[in-house]
Design goal:
The complex is a heterodimer of chains A (246) and B (434).
Chain A: E1 6-10, H1 14-26, E2 30-34, H2 37-46, E3 51-55, H3 63-71, E4 80-84, H4 89-97, E5 102-105, H5 110-126, E6 139-142, E7 145-148, E8 153-155, E9 161-163, H6 166-177, H7 185-191, H8 204-214, E10 225-228, E11 232-235, E12 239-242
Parallel strand pairs in A: 1-2, 1-3, 3-4, 4-5
Antiparallel strand pairs in A: 6-7, 6-12, 7-8, 8-9, 10-11
Chain B: H1 2-5, H2 10-62, H3 68-75, E1 80-84, H4 96-109, E2 116-121, E3 126-132, E4 138-143, H5 154-189, H6 205-252, H7 257-284, E5 291-294, H8 295-308, E6 313-317, E7 322-325, H9 327-345, E8 348-354, E9 360-366, H10 400-410, E10 414-419, E11 425-430
Classes of the chains: A alpha/beta (246), B alpha+beta (434).
């Protein structure tokens, strides 16, 4: 491999960022370390960073603020993995809304972090999303449906919440992030891989058919997810971002 | 024993006491009035007798026998009359009053006339006093001592008074029970998550005092819960960093049986901290807004998440109706119950039902070892663990059911556990009526 990925680890705890860096180096990454936002910006200005591991709870500007600032800066393309201290759904989703690509809950094992880093790098290299969901626009609208990316459920025209399983949500997000674009089964499989060690023996085809059911999409005449013979699937409905409160 | 005879509600007790008391007092004063009337009419009769019995008898005695009858009606009074003749013979004088009357007549008439009396009727009381005139003709004085008749309007007035008493008693009882009922309603509505409305101050001094005490208590509970949450959050937050360091250090060590055990210990600590925070938060309920949720897809998606990680969890019955609830909290409640079932039984079934009254229930069923009836309540207490499970393999922090129970309450639902026919456990969440 000619390119060695360069990871920036931002954490106010000296020992933690040191040990994380050691582990990542052992696994073939280059690392840089920063204790706060100021150090982080200094490193970003002088190095080509491939991914940032960002601790949420830091004195001064916390990880959420830094992540949002990054998304508004020239470094907006760099993927971010947040380290969250609390295992609480609200925090996770706020993190993702603030522009992070993924999160790892503290206390984490270094193997877990490594797996997330690899997955995020693979995902962003393979298919950068067309739509960037921001905190102001957490609702995606397509056809008669709206997807609440915070609560992770669909809203039908009457406003009734239709829940999605984790795998369904991830698949739908991949489709919505890449509308009108043919996605192969392999691409879909690797983009929808769950965070937990899911057995995932379900084929993408089964998942697609479940999702069609959820969307009340007729599998013979699908309006949302169309089958492209021998290539994969395409999400054929235009997707719009709705301003919050809309 | 007395308490069993008393009516159940304060209102009816107060009614009873007030009404009985007032009724007795009233009855007593009426009784006294009648007694007084009776006494005075008796003494009036005696007075009249004393004055005119001697005159009447003396006149009759002096009149020739043939001229006596026309005079008889003129001597008649309201309570006594004269009869020419032997009258009736009856029994002994029955009352002290009768004897007194006889004595009085005898005393007034003096030695000249032999007087003897007897009672001819007891209801109404009637007595006759017999004597013999100078020419040997018998004369009888018939007395009917009676009270002066009561006015026609008196029972009507009595009735009006009773109605008045009843109305006053009702008003007085209401004064006491209404604030009590309001207080009870407010205590019922008091939610552990805070945000319950304060009771409006006002009313009589005692009520105002109770209301302000209640409001203060509500504030203290809210403060207490907030503090508890803060403490738990702070502890868990401060523990996360050292636990993370520990974990990173152990993982950096060469793999050995010791490092595996260390990692297992760290994982257990981590779970305890997480559950503790989750429990503290569950009491708070969170700020999640209630939504109309399609229950079928809700349960399907939840169950598929388990199936996707290889756990045998199935939905056996769909309700087919939407519910209004806080989906994230409900998801956690059902999830905790499924986790529990999977932990102890290896598998879980989820069934949703709509009762005849429209009440929706969600049940999580398993075929595990179940829980003894005596322990069904206690397992929902925080940190309670069944004796049989007090080992690390199945242990956990003992907070799963406590969290589920608290969260269920926070979303207005309730959680019941019971044994399943044929072995196992049924956990039922009863959602609030729409």
């Amino acid at each position: 491999m000619d390119h060695t990925d360069h990871i920036l680890v931002v954490d106010d705890d000296h020992d933690i960022r040191g040990m994380v860096a050691d582990y990542l180096q052992k696994n073939g990454f280059r690392t840089s370390l920063a204790a706060d936002g100021r150090e982080m910006r200094a490193i970003l200005d002088t190095n080509a960073i491939d991914l940032i591991v960002l601790d949420i709870m830091m004195p001064g500007d916390d990880g959420l603020v830094l992540s949002r600032n990054l998304r508004a800066s020239k470094h907006k393309a760099i993927p971010i993995i947040l380290l969250t201290a609390r295992d609480d759904a609200t925090d996770r989703i706020i993190g993702l809304e603030m522009g992070a690509d993924d999160y790892v809950t503290k206390p984490f094992s270094p193997r877990e972090l490594l797996a997330r880093i690899n997955a995020v790098i693979r995902r962003t290299r393979m298919l950068p999303p067309n739509l960037q969901v921001t905190e102001a626009s957490r609702l995606l609208e397509f056809g008669q449906w709206r997807l609440d990316t915070t609560a992770r459920h669909l809203l039908d025209p009457e406003g009734t919440a239709v829940a999605l399983s984790g795998a369904e949500f991830r698949l739908l997000r991949v489709f919505l992030d890449h509308p009108q674009r043919v996605l192969s089964r392999d691409q879909l499989l690797s983009l929808t891989q769950g965070r937990e060690a899911e057995l995932f023996d379900r084929s993408i085809d089964l998942l697609v058919s479940r999702l069609r059911q959820r969307l009340k999409d007729d599998s013979r005449e699908p309006a949302y997810i169309k089958t492209v013979r021998s290539e994969g699937y395409v999400f054929s409905m235009p997707v719009t971002l709705l301003d919050d409160g809309a | 024993m007395w308490s069993r005879l008393l009516p159940r509600t304060i209102a009816s007790r107060l009614y009873m006491i007030l009404f009985t008391g007032l009724l007795l007092a009233h009855g007593l004063s009426f009784g006294m009035l009648f007694y007084e009337r009776y006494e005075s009419s008796t003494s009036m009769m005696m007075g009249n007798l004393e004055k005119d019995v001697s005159t009447s008898i003396a006149m009759l005695d002096r009149l020739p026998a043939a001229e006596r009858p026309p005079w008889i009606p003129k001597f008649e009074r309201r309570t006594y009359r004269y009869i020419l003749g032997p009258g009736q013979q009856g029994g002994e004088l029955a009352t002290e009053r009768a004897r007194e009357i006889t004595r009085l007549i005898g005393g007034v008439l003096g030695e000249r006339y032999k007087v003897h009396g007897n009672t001819t009727s007891t209801h109404p009381e009637r007595l006759q006093v017999h004597l013999t005139l100078g020419d040997g003709a018998p004369v009888t004085i018939e007395l009917t001592p009676s009270v002066m008749p009561v006015a026609q309007w008196l029972p009507f007035v009595l009735g009006v008074q009773l109605v008045l008493l009843l109305a006053c008693a009702w008003l007085a009882v209401r004064q006491i029970t209404r604030p009590l009922a309001q207080l009870a309603d407010a205590a019922d509505a008091l939610s552990p998550t805070g945000g319950s409305p304060q009771l409006p101050a006002g009313g009589p001094v005692e009520v105002a005092k109770a209301v302000s005490a209640f409001n203060a208590m509500q504030d203290r509970i809210a403060l207490h819960l907030k503090e508890r949450l803060q403490i738990l959050s702070a502890i868990s937050h401060d523990l996360q960093t050292p636990i993370t360091r520990l974990k990173l250090r152990v993982e950096a060590m060469d793999p050995s049986s010791t490092s595996d055990k260390l990692l297992a210990d760290i994982d257990e600590m981590q779970h305890l901290v997480r559950d503790g925070v989750a429990y503290a938060r569950s009491a708070h309920g969170g700020v999640e807004p209630a939504l109309k949720v399609d229950l079928d897809s809700f349960l399907d998606s939840l169950v598929w998440d388990y199936q996707d990680t290889g756990k045998p969890v199935t939905v056996t019955a769909h309700a087919g109706v939407p519910v209004t609830t806080r989906p994230r909290a409900l998801r956690r409640v059902v999830g905790n119950l499924i986790d529990n079932a999977v932990k102890y039984a290896g598998a879980a079934e989820v069934a949703a039902q709509v009762g005849a009254d429209g009440i929706v229930t969600i049940s999580v069923l398993d075929r595990g070892p179940g829980i003894a009836d005596a322990e069904l309540e206690s397992v929902m207490e925080p940190f309670y663990r069944l004796e049989a499970s007090r080992n690390r393999d199945t242990g956990g922090a003992g907070l799963g059911l406590a969290i589920a129970q608290q969260l269920a309450v926070a979303i207005g639902a309730s959680l019941q556990l019971r044994g399943r026919d044929g072995g196992g456990l049924v956990a039922t969440i009863t959602l609030p009526a729409a």
